């Protein structure tokens, strides 16, 4: 590691910086600049098939690792490591030709064997990838030569290119990559100081266009106020996602900073364990939905920012429908539904709540709301690691709060084994039929129908869609503004110095 990079990493980790406006020194773009990114989402490890959390996607997706296809910041899917591909007439065989001249950070060339290895990592029994089920129709992967990959499916999969954008291509010589990496992206890992910062440096052997900067340093915070202060004092250049509207007053209207609002796919939801009583009763779930003043909740958290959606599907998904009128706020109706469900005096349940904002505040809001209909909420605060083990893996819970960041993730409601346990055979079939569709219009219609059913079933309680607000120093440009899958491409970011 260069002395300059070590110095920048230390500076970011210790939050040492000048309080002077970065705009005051803005000159010409520095192609070797260090881009300092502040985030609340440190990866739990560096392997996205091993429960690394959304932080690994923010730092590594498109930056360190690439896939055969890439989901762009605008939401389209484009070829990345694929030079060309074709599907058979029956849609059961896909043949991919890889780009020439691509090398891993270790110097080894990209081959078809690496692609086969990488896909099989995601679909393996031990994989913890959220997209594992989406690739379950793959029955075979052949590599007739180093540049050709042939994938055979058990059923038509119209989303295969999209789903492959979640499969990072890893060198097949790599073994444990929970603390190391060997990708093909424009940056390689320089250093990861757990609990503090993660540094990426430009990979000079990159096959594509060189990054517009020399290095990227992610500094991690557990507190949004400390993160905001880091930007105010010039210890970081960018906040990838502002967590509170209150903090925007520090930046809005100040020529030293740029505030940008983009499209988000992050949904705050109250997820029930639909396998267990009383949440196996649709009337109970609908009662809680009607007892939640979501507009007041959103305003209390985000002021004029954010969106009410009424379901799991944000407006950026093709099958979005405005379902905010389903189970609209009505306390008396909620009480009547509870009585009809056999709970005239309410009931009691434990809400497992992640310990970071805004979840504890949301939990307290729901506790107060549900007391109005006789429902007692016991709040149990847990860490992100505890949530992953207790909720996601063991499914040992009654209800929980979580933000879901994935794009086009209504398919999770077609999986009865997913952590929330929702199981409506009609939805399962619609999701399967949508994936086997012969056209995008047919896929969209099937998933629109599924979306409406899960809303009517109140499968979960979808509280609001987060806003996506990026704040940067005024001398920094070229960063992505949307929040699709929490990815944050760093390679186009420019800094004037």
From TrEMBL:
GO biological process: peptide transport
Any one Gene Ontology cellular component term annotated for this protein: ATP-binding cassette (ABC) transporter complex
Transmembrane segments: none
A Pfam family per the record: SBP_bac_5
GO molecular function: peptide transmembrane transporter activity
InterPro entries xrefs: Peptide/Ni-bd, SBP_5, SBP_5_dom
UniProt domain Solute-binding protein family: residue ranges: 77-402
UniProt KW Protease keyword: no
Electron transport among keywords: no
Family statement drawn from the similarity comment of this UniProt entry: Belongs to the bacterial solute-binding protein 5 family.
UniProt-recorded name of the protein: ABC transporter substrate-binding protein
Stretch forming the signal peptide: 1-26
CDD domains linked: PBP2_NikA_DppA_OppA_like_6 (cd08494)
Lineage: Bacteria, Pseudomonadati, Pseudomonadota, Alphaproteobacteria, Hyphomicrobiales
Gene3D superfamilies the UniProt entry points to: Dipeptide-binding Protein, Domain 1 (3.90.76.10), Dipeptide-binding Protein, Domain 3 (3.10.105.10), Periplasmic binding protein-like II (3.40.190.10)
Keywords assigned by UniProt, alphabetized: Signal
Cellular localization per UniProt: Periplasm
